[in-house]
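During data preparation, we tokenized the protein backbone, and the record follows.
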Amino acid sequence: MRPDTPAENVDHAAEAARLERTAGLYPEDAEALLLRAAAHRELSGDRPAATTLYDRLLSSVAELDHPHLVRALKASNLWEYGHEAEARAIIEGIRVAAPRDPAPWVIIAEALESHDELEAAHETFTEAARLLLTDVEEPPYATHPVLFGRHRVRRMLGAPHDDWDTLADSLNTAPVPLDELHDPNRVWSLGSSNPAELAAEISRLRAELGTYREALSRPFPVAVLHWPAAELSELLADYPSLSSEYPSYEAHLATVEASLRELAASGTQNLGIVTGTVPSYEAFAASEASSPADPTLLPQYATTLAARGRAVAWPPQRGAECWCGSGRAYGECHGVIQA
């Protein structure tokens, strides 16, 4: 169950407790599960308990996949129940660390925005845009909230459009332009007695809700399955019939990249890569009461890994290592544009 489920339809405290128990059973997925549990704790009103979960993750001996995200969520939560100084210190630390993941930037910028720190929120969104989008031909799906948030704050500050605002407008898929959605004067329309103004505002709210629901409808990326060389060799040795799916390791890597580019070209957003292991795949097959040799299980396995928070966003951020594990930059490896 997602944390955005209406409170009248879910016992957030009970759901958090269930996720915490599940994290104990599956420690390899503890980070994703405990982050969801913390969200439910926040929604239940128990913000100190949410902070305890964030601290549990940050103090874990296991290396976190997204440590800056955990810190950003902790800062946002702390500020909501009176720990402003600590929250500000964490936010400043994240800005100095300059993570390549857009999510921490969005969370800390929105925390500043929600507490009327509009100038600081604008600076934070702009830092993120410079870091993540300079010299990027097509902004990755995960960076869209950076541009949308920056546009919203700039509208509240009365700043004129710049190139990134124009880019944000072009990425907006709602039927209502961002300038209308982010109009600071919209609040006055809600108190109007003019039926035409109220109807226009209802239309804008519906468009905004539609965009929000569209984002929530895909809580995890559309993911393509990648096998490291050693894992693929073991998989084919144990299940030779899968060689028709994987004629060679090089062909497998090329297929992964080609599949993702084809999905992107078709307009599919929020793409990712999940990395498989033979023990994990065999356990999944057993849970489905099926044989690992069944090729129809492969896409289901990929979706399950993505749902468990195992997907890595594609394409990698500028300068990041290639997803294939070669150690080279993506732009010099599978990210090379084919003539």
